[in-house]
Amino acid sequence: MKRPGRRHRWLYRGGRPNRLARAMNRAWRVLHSSGLVRCLVTLEVAGRRTGRVISFPLVAADYRGERYLVAMPGPNANWVRNVRAAEGRAVLCHGRRRAVRLEEVEPALRAPIPRRYLGLAPGARPHVPVDRHAPLEEYERIAAGVPVFRITTSS
Questions:
Q1: What is the mean pLDDT of the chain?
Q2: 53: which strand partners?
Q3: Residues 48, 80: contact at Cβ < 8 Å?
Q4: Which run of H or E residues covers position 103?
Q5: Distances in Å between the alpha carbon of 3 and those of 54, 73, 124, 129, 134?
Q6: Across 35-88, where does the E strand assignment appear?
Q7: pLDDT in tens, 69-120
Q8: Dist. CA 8–CA 10, nearest whole Å
Q9: Is 44 helix (H, G, I), strand (E, B) or coil?
Q10: DSSP letter at 95?
Q11: pLDDT tens per residue across span 40-80
């Protein structure tokens, strides 16, 4: 089973970003929101405790004509908990801001999406105990622990 490297563990000690990681995330958020790179987006969602809008730079994976957000750190990732508390209501920034609805994908249907995601997001690879070239069966084994949200238009 692969584990995050020393640098990643230092940046995200205790599962939360330290000051340097927060600064890096702010810089990435600008690039992700710009719309210059197709798969980079910024997710804005209301915080589950404060209600303040919180932004997260993410990679949107495309698979079979749909777009998805994948939480490689697992179900306790802050943005996942906020999206669940907001019942899927969020805003995606990618050149422009757009209200969206995020629908959680059933674990039995998730496996091919994290596989595609790892091809687009090399920074996510330390979070996953499966090689990005592994057969789909290995992704099926970890799918329940990797939240996946389908991006739909807000209604």
A1: 85
A2: 46
A3: no
A4: strand 97-104
A5: 28, 11, 11, 7, 16
A6: 40-46, 53-63, 66-70
A7: 999 888 888 999 999 999 999 999 988 899 999 999 999 999 999 989 888 8
A8: 5
A9: strand
A10: S
A11: 888 999 999 999 999 888 899 999 999 999 998 888 889 99
Q: d(Cα 44, Cα 31) in Å, to the nearest integer?
A: 15
Output the six-digit token pair for 141.
């084994």
Q: Report the alpha-carbon distance of residue 45 to residue 137 in Å, rounded.
A: 33
81-to-25, 62, 110, 112, 137 alpha-carbon distances in Å: 18, 22, 18, 23, 27
Q: Which residues contact 38 (CB under 8 A, 6 or more apart)?
A: none
Let me know: does 33 contact 92? Beta carbons within 8 Å: no
N residues, the chain: 155
Q: How far apart are the C-alpha atoms of 43 and 37, rounded to whole Å?
A: 15
Asked if residue 152 has pLDDT above 90, the reply is yes
Provide the residue type at 136 as one letter. Answer: L
List Cβ<8 Å contacts ≥24 apart for 3-10.
Answer: 3/126, 4/126, 4/127, 5/126, 8/126
Is 21:15 a contact under the CB 8 Å cutoff? no
How are beta strands 97-104 and 53-63 bridged, if at all? unpaired
Q: What is the pLDDT of residue 153?
A: 86
